[in-house]
Amino acid sequence: MTAALAAFTVPSRTLRALASTEPSPDGTRLVRDVRRSKRLVLLRAVLDAAPCGSSGRTADHWALLEEAERHDPAAVRDVLHYPATGVWAEETLRRLHAPYGPPPDLAHLGTLAAAAALRAGIPFTHTLRPVHGRLVLPTLGLLRPDRPGPLVLTERSWDPEDPATLPLHALPGGRTALDDLDPYRAPGPAQPAPLRPARRLTPKGHKRWDTQWSGALTLLQRYDTVRAEETVQLLRSLVPLAGGSRSSGATLPAAAGSVLARAQAPPALAATLVHEVQHGKLTALADVLTLHTADAAPRHWAPWRSDPRPLEGLLHGAYAHLALAGYWQRAALYGARGAWAQHARIRAQVAAVLPALRAHDRLTSAGREFTDAMAAAERAMDELPPPGDQHAAARRAVDRERRAWCEAHPELAPFAQV
Hints:
Blueprint: H1 2-5, H2 12-19, H3 25-49, H4 55-71, H5 73-80, H6 83-97, H7 108-120, E1 125-128, E2 135-137, E3 141-143, E4 151-154, E5 165-167, E6 169-170, E7 177-178, H8 203-223, H9 225-234, E8 237-240, E9 249-250, E10 258-261, H10 266-288, H11 311-333, H12 339-359, H13 365-380, H14 390-408
Parallel strand pairs: 7-8, 8-10
Antiparallel strand pairs: 1-4, 2-3, 3-5, 6-7, 9-10
């Protein structure tokens, strides 16, 4: 897969624009193109790895996809590049290559094909088998047949007004879906509790999310218009987390274009969206550009976490928090309550780890240019400093946290020094 993506080139201007975390047309285009290319490579790998015994049905599903694409390429692209499709494809490929464990869910390719055909509006007949009395059609929703057994789908099978049909909930103000239906909206039961998706929401739950989403987008548009536009362009789905989730938000590399988030007030949700969109951007960049060659050993201090982090985790955290520092600075300039304190605290955290990042001996030349541009973006915040000594006070607080962390992890103290 890496070899197939090696054709991408990242000009220095685009690399530095991405490193600043500030949205740019070139950066957004690169992220979207990388995601699409990676998904097609992954789907091709699934088809190539499918066992011979399933080739007939798999070929039928793929033929229906191709027929739909001839009539409506955009509809098929949206189905194939939907975030949950990536989770299915990666899990299926893993199972195809695993000698033991559950069998691959190749039948899901049929639901992708049927969804694409329905959206393309072509005449077709396709037989699929519902799971637990439900047939999920990615990007559309689910069907609840009134009898068990195989279900014959045609171009007339999807009627949003039919009580047997449950459409996927669309959030206001964009093309982002609130996905509480797709079985692949997040990894399976083995996923840790903090990232467990919520079960299907009630209409009241959908309405609550509509209010929180609309409020978050309104704040983003008020404080940081370009980040609001970037969020809408790069975020295809939002997956509600189950109640009691300790994490406010997360992204999964397999589900490019999706954010998992718990219910939260609009100001907190706006910050979560800014934070998580950055993780998605950096993941896409790392798919086509090697920024470092460090191992995954957790040894670095990160002020926003208590546990030691590998270099990759430290880089991701610093990058997402750099964007948050910029967002809160803009919010503060618009008079948002408490925004200066948020900005000062987060900027101090980023500034505390940037020297260690930039000095790391396993950075590539691209990684060095990237972290240098991150540092330049952090320094540029001096042009609009917070009032009083908030910045200095935040730095002192972070230094105290560093010393406490070193006392708790004496063997890792060298990795927390400036």
